[in-house]
Input
Amino acid sequence: MDGHVQVKDIGQAVDLAPARMRELRERGVFDAVKYMNLWWVPEEEIPQIMYRINQYTLRQPFDPANHITVKDAADKLGVTVNAVYAVIGETLDLAEGELWKCVTRASLNKVLARRGRRRSA
Output
């Protein structure tokens, strides 16, 4: 399509997997049109789309008061580290530190509350 760019190309530019780009499109972070079984966006909308994607996927620096390591989150939930990574973005918010992969304490507390656990992270 002339004047359009494939969504997969935008995803590669911002280092997001096709599944994550599909999720962002479905959540309304950006609009796209399907043509010939591919998703496309107008070239002139790319700066706004990139801005919205970056805002939506913004990762905050590690702050011990507000974040907990993925390993500690797994211990509190009684699951494996891989299980925590599997739900990051769905139920847990990711934060990146220089040395750790972390989740926000607020998102972990929501998961604990849904599971009926009273203790907080």
In short: The helical segments are 7-13, 18-26, 46-56, 70-77, 81-87, 105-114.
